[in-house]
Every structure is written in C-alpha cells, then in structure tokens.
Amino acid sequence: xxxxxxxxxxxxxxxxxxxxxxxxxxxxxxxxxxxxxxxxxxxxxxxxxxxxxxxxxxxxxxxxxxxxxxxxxxxxxxxxxxxxxxxxxxxxxxxxxxxxxxxxxxxxxxxxxxxxxxxxxxxxxxxxxxxxxxxxxxxxxxxxxxxxxxxxxxxxxxxxxxxxxxxxxxxxxxxxxxxxxxxxxxxxxxxxxxxxxxxxxxxxxxxxxxxxxxxxxxxxxxxxxxxxxxxxxxxxxxxxxxxxxxxxxxx
Length: 251
What we know:
Elements: E1 2-6, H1 15-28, E2 33-37, H2 43-47, E3 52-56, E4 76-80, H3 93-108, E5 114-118, H4 125-133, E6 136-142, H5 145-149, H6 151-161, E7 169-176, H7 183-195, H8 209-217, H9 229-249
Parallel strand pairs: 1-5, 1-6, 2-4, 2-5, 3-4, 6-7
C-alpha cells in the first residue's frame, strides 16, 4: 500500500478538493483506496460520507484496530474525522505515532492499494504523525501572499520529517484556486516557477465553482452535468494522471 498525505500549514488552499478527486480517480483506475480524514473540519468526511466505515480517525491513534466491513468488495473506504482528533496534541507523540503506524499497517494487510490522508492546516501531531509514516506528500498552494509565505515553512517541515522518515518523497506543490484572469496570480505563479522550478508541478487547478458543486454533491467534478465543469474536469484529470504516474515511478 502506498500512502500519500495532502498537507499545507495554510488553510483554504484546496487540499480536500484535490484529495477527494484523487480518491475518486484512483478508484476508477481499479485501485482499492482508503481515505483517512485527520482534519477536524471533516470536509472530506462530508463529501465521502457514503463510503464511511465503522472506524473514526481518532481510533487510529490508540490501540483500537480499524474495522473495514465487506473489504473484499469495497473499492473506496473512508475513516472519517471525529471531534476527538482535537485532543491529539495533548497526548505523547511517541505513543500515538506507534499506534498510528500499526493501524495503518493493518489497513495495508486488508489489501488497500492506496491510502490518502487529509490533514489539518497546522503543524500538529496529526500532520506530523501522518508524514512520519507516509511514502509521499503533496502540497496544494494558493497564489496569494499569505500562502506563498508559508511555502518555506512547509518545505522546512518536510525536510525535518525526512530525517526520521527518509522514504518520504515530496511530489511537489500544485497551484490551486488559480484565477488566470488575475494579474497577481499570474505574477505569483511566475515567481514560484522561477524560485522553485523543481517543486512547482506543471499543472494547476483553477478557481472553479463546479468543483465546489461536486464536493457538495458527493461526486467527482467529471460527473457534474454542466458545461462549466469541463475545464475543471480536464485540470483535475491532468493532475490525477501526474500524481498517479509519480507514485508509480518514484521509489
């Protein structure tokens, strides 16, 4: 099982929208996907609620093993966020990390191919623990000043985590909620491509209302029957192709 964490210490950058669409896309490719929602806002849990299992996310940080019913037929499963996640930072990091690692390993034994983890927009125990067991991390980045200022902090966090998890591969930063009619966005994108040529992915996701419609409806944007959804579909599928191929080739 390959584990991908979607992480950024800045909120509102489109993390969940990207994670949910990767989950749908990977499922349609015939992969068995488990989504773990570690964000107490629970947005991924809302969109994917029909795939919810009997296990909630806080259980993964203690000795309770995850329960996935009908696992032989389930191609997409959700371990939903719950209120107890807010108490994680009061617990010993070493203890919760050990439990989380063991429980994610248990999921691998249930024949899931891919584990996608959504994290809260803060450097708490949830994000740190997820990164310490992950194979890959992807960081959506909004083309606004505050989000751009957070890039160095996120890069530093990943570099520090790799000291304890050397297998962690940074797949890069994906420009999200991009408005190509906005000169500021275009300027910031050019700056980022110049400053981080190896880290900025060569595709982006626009500021599309059809993506919000899809998330609210619990379906991928390519199933939204609106002409406006076509561009969003193309962007999302291009990103999914890129990430899937990177996960297939990066060791």
